[in-house]
Amino acid sequence: MLIVIFSVMLYHYIKITIFENIVQSLTLEAKNIISSKESLEVGNLEFYYPQSEHLSILQISENVHGLTSPKFIQSKEDNDTFLTLYYPYKDTMVLTIKKNTTEYSNVVEQILVDILIINATAIFLILFYALFLSRMLLLPIKMLSLKLSKLNERFLQEVSIDELPEEFEPLGDSVNRLIARIQTFVQYQKELFIGAAHELKTPLAVMKTKNEVTLIKPREQEKYIEALKNNNESINQMNKMISSILEIGRQEGAQFEKPVNIDIIAYINEIGNNFLILAKGENKNISLNLEPQSLKMFLQPTLFLHVIQNFVQNAIKFSPSGATVEIKTSLHDDEFVVEVIDQGPGIDEGKDLFAPFKRYGDKGGAGLGLFLAKGAAQALGGNVQITNKPDKSGAIATLKIPINTKNTKKLINSKFLK
Fold first, then answer.
1. What's the predicted TM-score (pTM) here?
2. Dihedral sign, Cα of residue 175, residue 177, residue 179, residue 185
3. Distance CA 89, CA 58 (A)
């Protein structure tokens, strides 16, 4: 559309320019004739000048229309076009100059034809290029869509980035990261369901056996009371496990929580007071070692709290009486790092501590805390790990969250420069 409008404007500009030049030449010719001082006083008679190579007709007649300024009229006779100038002379006379402009009109018409041909060619090339380019852009998208449509929970395979154009590699990387998260989620969900069935089935079987043994023959009242107490203990353990499984559902719901821009250092200081109350209840202490002094991050506070809370609870649980649990934060390679350091017996680094229903040590529990912490960390775009301290005097639980917002980076730099 813009090309057509520009072409029409160009055509009219050329046409007006050509005929303005003709008008100026005729006006100049009229002025020269009048200033030549030849015999123009002819009364009421018409006076004809001879034909010239530039002018078709040159004559003087009475000013019957009372013209006070030059007037131009364009006309057509047979196949020729003419431009006529009526130039007033001494109030009562009019100088008429008529010029054949057929050649100029033909040139203008040819220019119009050329412009139309050029426009049609340009539009065709643009449409062809747009169609070709769109097919080039849509081809990798269609190929990617086809591969994704074949994926399901039984067949999850990463997309080969080598087959994609360079412009689509970031999209392929994002899809592969999503597939990796889905694979991890499906794997842990399967382990969760299998573990939950096993963990609930075993105490139920034990309860049933105890009841059947108790009912084989009449027994003293104390035996019945003991059997009921044992069953109640098993029921309480199953209730804890069911609560942990329900916590998984709540955590998955928290993943859809709207991220907010918060000062993460101030937030850790705030929740650290609650952790201190929990530690004091078990004759232990909490220390905070937070760097930098302030850091704005865009994340879901509930998921972040879930990870840190689980780390701190485990650290308090496995640390001896009078011990101090340290919460430490720092920045490393565009990552915000939170470390919870305890003074417990350490861990077996050869075991998968984040698998569901895996219990280590003699402190009990459903074995789902670290499993939930890992899921929350992945939802935040980060990762978790647990290692022993270099001197084996405790464990270090670490959460790393990438910092990928420009505003956050600017704030970090300003803090360090100070």
1. 0.49
2. negative
3. 14
Distance between CA atoms of residues 240 and 235, nearest Å: 9
Residue type, 99: K
Query: Can you tell me the distance from the alpha carbon of 44 to that of 21, in angstroms, rounded to the nearest whole number?
Result: 32
CA torsion, points 140, 145, 151, 152, in degrees to nearest 10? Answer: 160
State how far the Cα of 351 lies from the Cα of 354, in Å rounded to an integer. Answer: 9
Per-residue pLDDT for 199 more than 80? no
Find out whether 363 and 317 touch, Cβ atoms under 8 Å. yes
Instruction: Say whether pLDDT at 102 is over 90.
Output: no
Which residues make Cβ contacts (< 8 Å) with residue 174, sequence separation at least 6? none
What CA–CA distance (Å, rounded) separates 99 from 53? 10
Q: State the Cα–Cα distance between residues 325 and 393, nearest whole angstrom.
A: 12
CB 338 within 8 A of CB 176: no
Q: Report the candidate in 325, 234, 236, 230 with the shortest Cα–Cα distance to residue 277.
A: 325
- The residue length of the chain stands at 418
- Which of 160, 161, 156 is closest to 184 using CA atoms? 156
Contacts of residue 157, defined as CB under 8 A and 6 or more positions apart, other chains included, come to: 151, 179
On the question of pLDDT at 159 being above 90, the answer is no
CB 83 within 8 A of CB 26: yes
Q: Give the sign of the dihedral formed by CA 319, CA 321, CA 323, CA 329.
A: positive
Partners of 73 in the beta sheet? 84
More reliable by pLDDT, 280 or 379: 280
3-class DSSP assignment, residue 47: strand
Q: Are 14 and 111 in contact (CB under 8 A)?
A: yes
